[in-house]
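In response to reviewer comment 3 from the previous cycle, which asked for concrete evidence that the modeling workflow produces usable outputs, we include below a single protein chain processed end to end. The sequence was submitted unchanged, and the resulting structure tokens are shown without manual editing.
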Amino acid sequence: MTKKLAGKVAVITGASAGIGWASAIALAAEGASLVLTARRQDRLEELAAQAKALGGDATIIVGDAREEETALQTVAAAKETFGSLDILINNVGVGNYKNLVDTSAADYDEMVDINIRSTFLFTRHAVPVMIEQGAGTVLMISSMAGVYGFAGEAVYCATKFAQVGFAQALDKELRPHGIKVGIICPGGVKTEFALGKGRTEQSVSESDMLEPEDVAGAVLLACTQSPQSRIIEVRMRTMAEALA
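The workflow returned the following structure tokens.
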């Protein structure tokens, strides 16, 4: 049986752990060729090997997603290695859970640069390729913190709301070019995210939060829609969430 993403090329940022890693595995299992980028080379090499074992193909770009050169190199790698760029998953992100009065300008800069600037940079340089192709899918991995605010997370929420607005605007801007733009908004996920910045390994492991594979399932759904349909927004919460 033909795999759903055979012949498709996907770029995944923040691929070395968590949602990025799980999404890479899900897409590779459906035949996608992957361009994986993050800062940890050893993790990326391990992931690329797993992707190839599943029947996909993969190449890696080691770099900081906040730097424009990383985005340029990643998009170039997709075109030069695989000949196209069909899917962009803007997954890289950082959280730092603090009350406003405890949040420094450096904390603010880090969250804005990683969560918003990286999303802009990779999208900015991937979209021209998709416009030329007349098709493509751009996904932002945001958060339920991009849907409504949480105390102690004001700056983080602001960056995630920004991703939602960015996606909504681009949906209208890019649809005439055949490009689908969507956003995935999960609640808490059991990953390395925000460890030491409001979360601990124990609190995460003992929680009833979503698993990375749960979110990867939504990513795969958005990437495998029929040509005439698109996923605009997916909101995800754990079944263990208390009833209102």
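The chain has a mean pLDDT of 93. We consider this sufficient to address the reviewer's concern, and the full set will be provided in the supplementary archive.
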